[in-house]
Each structure stands twice: as C-alpha cells, then as structure tokens.
Amino acid sequence: MQRHNFFRNFCYFLTLCMLTLYPVTSKNCPATGAHPFYVSVTEIRSDSQKQTFSVSVRMFTDDIQQALFKLYGYKGELNAEDGSASAYLGKYIPERLGITVAGKAVALQWVGYETEEEATWCHLEVSTFPGTGAIAVTNRILYDFIEEQTNLVHCYRDGTRSSYKLVNPEVLAQF
Fold first, then answer.
1. What's the pLDDT tens digit per position in 21-65?
2. What pTM was computed for the model?
C-alpha cells in the first residue's frame, strides 16, 4: 500500500510539474492546439450505507470533441449552453466504459455533462445499487483516437480510495 501511495503521489507531482513548467499555449502547440499529455480520470463512488453508485469521467474537452466528430460527425461545441452534445456523450461513454460488480454488469445511466475550462465532466449513475463485491472496470475511453492516451481510474468505496493507471492499450482495472 505504501508503494501505491508513493506512485500516486509521484504521478500527481509529475503532472503538477508538467502543468507548471510546460503551460499549454498556442505557442507550444501551434498547429493543432493540442496539449502535451493525454489523460482522462474516471471516478467511481460506491456507498453501501446510502446504497448509491455513481461514475464521473473527466477528459480534455478538445479530445472528446474530436472523437465525437470522427465517430458521429458532431460539429457542435461541448461548452454550448444548449447541451446538444449530451446524446453523443451519452452514447460514447457507455460504449467504452464497462463496470462489473461481483461479476455482474452494471447498467450505467447517463445523467449529463458539464464543461469547466479545458475539461469536460460526464456523469453516470445506476438505478439499483449493485452490491459490494469486487469491482472490475473496462476503460477504452479515447483509445481509438489517441495512441498516447492514459486513463486513471479512482474507486471510492465507502470512503476508501483505490487507484489504477491504464495506459493504452491496457483496459482492465480491478478493485
């Protein structure tokens, strides 16, 4: 466990250094407006006392917007107030994110999304609490478009956090 915490803290430190020392500007990435790293964060929150199970996925807005365009031809802006991208995101995320609890698939239901600065948060939940067994996550978000994609998965179970790092093509995290 101590090794896990060291690795997690090292990743946070490295990310902070990258953001501080290499700010994303048009000068750094003139042709595409891209950023120097490709990462998503999936947070799973399971509370057995409240009988709740929710999932949030954070991605760079430009990455997911390009994926929606390539897959579905969606040309709108994710930060548009009309929420027109909701149907596309609600289709894309469940196609690439699968969760099982105690070996049984969890039916994720789309709640919605929000954008803040350069990130888009997608929110999903389940209607029936799936129980407290082992959680397995299959995460392929943005893998089909970004070869360098890394997906971090954080699982908060009754207040205890566990994390896993998936680097394309790795897809399975188990908690």
1. 334 333 333 334 567 889 999 999 999 999 999 999 999 999 999
2. 0.79
Token digits of residue 104 = 């049984």
Distances in whole angstroms, Cα of residue 90 to Cα of each of 87, 93, 101, 160, 173? 5, 6, 21, 28, 22
* Closest to 79 (Cα-Cα) out of 66, 63, 65: 65
Whether 141 contacts 151, CB under 8 Å: yes
d(Cα 144, Cα 166) in Å, to the nearest integer? 14
Complete DSSP assignment for 108-171: -EEEEEEEETTEEEEEEE-SS---SS-EEEEE-TTTTT-TT-EEEEEEEETTEEEEEEEETT--
